[in-house]
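Help needed: design a sequence for this.
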């Protein structure tokens, strides 16, 4: 404020009050200009105009939604679980399908082994019968 400025430069104000007011006005205008310039530099440097535009678009899109937006619960493990659950469920179903295929393949192989053993037993009986016939 002007009063604070005057209190800092009291001696100068007592001698020339009009000049003090003029200096204060110049000081304020230059300060405002430099602040505006700094803000513009920050906006340009951080690409804030584009970011604010995209934020405005997100806000406009969110107005049409009826369900509430997701918010973190404050418990990171719970939040991660919520984010990973769909992926893990998909992975579980994939693993179950793979397990079912492997079990089917194993059942087929086990059946082939049993058939092979039966065939070996038949051949052994046939061999035994021919051996007895030969003797």
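Sure. Designed sequence:
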């Amino acid at each position: 404020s002007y009063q604070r400025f005057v209190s800092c430069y009291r001696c100068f104000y007592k001698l020339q009050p009009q000049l003090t007011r003029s200096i204060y006005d110049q000081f304020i205008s230059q300060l405002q200009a430099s602040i505006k310039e700094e803000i513009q530099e920050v906006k340009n440097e951080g690409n804030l105009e584009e970011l604010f535009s995209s934020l405005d678009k997100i806000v406009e899109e969110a107005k049409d939604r009826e369900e509430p937006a997701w918010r973190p619960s404050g418990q990171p493990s719970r939040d991660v679980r919520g984010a990973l659950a769909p992926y893990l469920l998909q992975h579980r179903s994939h693993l179950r399908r793979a397990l079912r295929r492997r079990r089917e393949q194993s059942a087929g192989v086990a059946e082939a082994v049993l058939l092979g053993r039966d065939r070996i037993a038949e051949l052994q009986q046939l061999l035994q019968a021919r051996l007895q016939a030969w003797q």
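The mean pLDDT is 88.
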